[in-house]
Amino acid sequence: MHREPRIFEENRERIEKYITGIVNNIDCKLYAIYANPEHVHFLISRAANIDEESLANKIAESSSKFINENRLCGNNFQ
Fold first, then answer.
1. Please, where are the H alpha helices in the chain?
2. Is 33 exposed, middle or buried (0-12, 13-18, 19+ CB in 10 A)?
3. Is the separation of the CB atoms in 30 and 65 below 8 Å?
4. Structure pTM?
5. How wide is the angle at C-alpha 38 spanned by C-alphas 37 and 40, nearest 5°?
6. Contact status, residue 78 vs residue 40, Cβ threshold 8 Å
7. Which residues pair with 44 in a beta bridge?
8. What does the pLDDT read at residue 55?
9. CB-based contacts of 13: which residues, under 8 Å, 6+ apart?
10. Fewer CB atoms < 10 Å away: N or C end of the chain?
């Protein structure tokens, strides 16, 4: 998979804060996050009531929708 640098520095903090909110809203704990230009790294401890796949899907779907609706990365972000 080829990754393009689509997360611009001026939008990085806003994206990180949004993902932090997603994690908090599903009763998980976020310890660290950093949005690189091509992708995001984060360290989370998940709640017992959600599995890893569901957690990853929730973060990916919600953050992609937020980024695209607010046009934070130009073209369609996935």
1. 9-25, 52-69
2. middle
3. no
4. 0.86
5. 85
6. no
7. 30
8. 95
9. none
10. N
Q: Which residues pair with 45 in a beta bridge?
A: 29
- Residue 12 is which amino acid? R
Tokens found for residue 72:
């934070």
> For residues 66 and 12, what is the distance between their CA atoms, to the nearest angstrom?
13
Question: Are residues 15 and 7 in contact, defined by beta-carbon separation less than 8 angstroms?
Answer: yes
How many whole angstroms separate alpha carbon 53 and alpha carbon 61? 12
Residue with tokens 């949005």: 35
- The segments of the chain whose pLDDT lies below 50 read none
| Cα–Cα distance, 19 to 76 (Å, whole number) | 18
- CA distances from residue 20 to 3, 27, 45, 51, 60 in whole angstroms, order as listed: 23, 11, 12, 18, 12
